[in-house]
Amino acid sequence: MANENIYPPFRYTLGRPLKYQPAELLEKFQEYVDWAKANPISVGHTERNYAKDGGIYGKELEERKPRLVSISGFLVHLGLERSWWDNLGTGKRGEEFLRVKSFIRDYCENFQKEMATNDIFNANIISRLLGLADKKEVKADLTPVIVVNNQDEKKKIEGIGEIGV
User: Fold this and answer.
1) What is the CATH number of the domain that holds 50?
2) What are phi and psi of 80, to 5 degrees?
3) Distance between CA 85 and CA 17 in Å, rounded?
4) What is the pLDDT of residues 129-157, one digit of tens each?
5) What are phi and psi of 141, to 5 degrees?
6) Which residues constitute the domain of residue 114?
7) 94-117 and 71-78 helices, crossing angle to 10°
8) Is residue 72 one of the residues assigned to a domain?
9) pTM more than 0.70
10) 122: number of CA atoms within 13 Å, CB side?
11) What DSSP state is assigned to residue 149?
12) Cα 70 from Cα 53, distance rounded (Å)
């Protein structure tokens, strides 16, 4: 089975980042989504069959899974950094870019949730990516536990605190 798991072509812009208009940024995002659909990830595994004679027979199976659509993947597709994305809402057209960023973020989150709820993506990983995982604070009781063999040892240990120095 040939490895068809390609990633977007490596691009990186040195110096001043590319300038986009809000509509052009949406077009670039559509290109990224189309690329992700056209390039699913191939996952190979072996199906094992057990025969009556005790032999194990298997055949290679290939499963094609959708590629995760994310803001990070979009930035890799563009060849730009997260800092560029974070500062995109500033400037004279900031409000327009904020609407575009909001749409892209919502699209990515909805896509990820739908894939997780249909068992296409691992729900635990997606919940962590989206910040939905429970963050429980765990407190440990660090009180020492003393194990004794009999009541005489227990009385001796309890009496240690009464000994004056």
Assistant:
1) 1.10.132.80
2) -120, 165
3) 10
4) 777 666 566 666 666 666 677 787 777 77
5) -85, 110
6) 22-136
7) 120
8) yes
9) no
10) 5
11) S
12) 49
